[in-house]
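note to self: dont lose this again. the chain is below, predicted strucutre after it. 442 aa total, dont forget to put it in the shared folder this time
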Amino acid sequence: MGLTGLEIFKHLPKTNCKECGFPTCLAFAMALASGKTSLDLCPYVTEEGKAALESASAPPIKLVKVGTGDHLLELGDETELFRHDKRFFHPTGVAVLISDTGDAAAEAAAFDELEFDRVGLHYVTDVVAVKCDSGDGAKFKAAVEAVAGKTEKAMILICEDPALLEGAAGAVAARKPLLYAATADNYEKMVELAKANECPLAVRGEDLEKTAELVEKVVALGQKDLVLDSGARDTSKVLADLTQFRRGAIKKVRAFGYPTITFTTKEDPLEEIVQAGVYLSKYASVVVLKTAKKEHLLPLLSWRQNLYTDPQKPIAVEAGLYEVGEVTADSPVYCTTNFSLTYFIVEGEVENSRVPSYILSVDTGGISVLTAYADNKFSGEIIAKAMKDAGLEEKVNHKTIVLPGHVAVLQGTLEEESGGWKVLVGPREAAGIPKFAKEKFE
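---
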């Protein structure tokens, strides 16, 4: 368990210098005990004090890195049990499983193309997991090398026989793959292999207690970069274990203070995605899936994006004037907020109308139309200023702007504030834009 605030206070200089940002050393100690600050902020703590406080200043969950370069995947280093308390930092790695008994090169090439663009964001799968199903070390090594030749993304090598894994691990050691997995039967050899290749190592127990015991044995042998698997495969049991791992880590149970890995077991792809969504939500660091179809993965990646977005900072596009199609001085002008989801829905429907148009994205702090209106961030005055800042009068010759139907009440104010612009009240829902455009602008 971690040290209490009073225990930490005993090792601090007690100068109350305030240079750490806290009014007293005791306040700093309390914040350090709860994981809300770092020992590095204290300029006067002694080396002996630092050594004594190492467990208190360490993050609840160790940061473990898999892969290299632009495709480095960072796991762990989380500090919260609930997202709304602060935020989650390192998105769950989504891995696709490839067997060494199939066409590994072709599957890896297809995996590398699993990228999506949605609401202005770019989603990717992060990890390719190569599994030794053949029981042949040479074949496994060849499959790993074939996969490495087709994708630069992070890798997981799944083989519990160190003798079979050795060749494959050595072949791609520079890529820093995650080696899976050390068990009660093989952990000594697996630790040797991980240390020799300087790779992170997954540890799989039979339950929480045995996993913790195995972690302590592995750490005692000098392997520090670990990823945990409780060994459970039933969805409810995995969820319970992941929750206990996270709770224990937050409470500074050091054996639980590592990232986690899970594997889907459902055969139906849609059920598999639901299962993966459960693990992604609480609290898997990596989820390994069998399905590799875009239509299956996109919902999971979308949910991951939402979950790992700062809850205090909405996703927003840059405010300004956007062109949809080959606009002219006669093109209509639509107005909306800079909340990403709102903007891209409007943009899609404007594009569907086949009428080249401008969209004025007003800076509302990244919140939706009605929310911004209720917060007085989407008013006639603010919209009129955005129109002026965007230079609308120099862009179009008709002095007409379309207001979202949900805020029709702003029509009069906007006409007054804009200096003579005509304000049309548009549809209440973006889906009505094509019909509206056909009636008003064709």
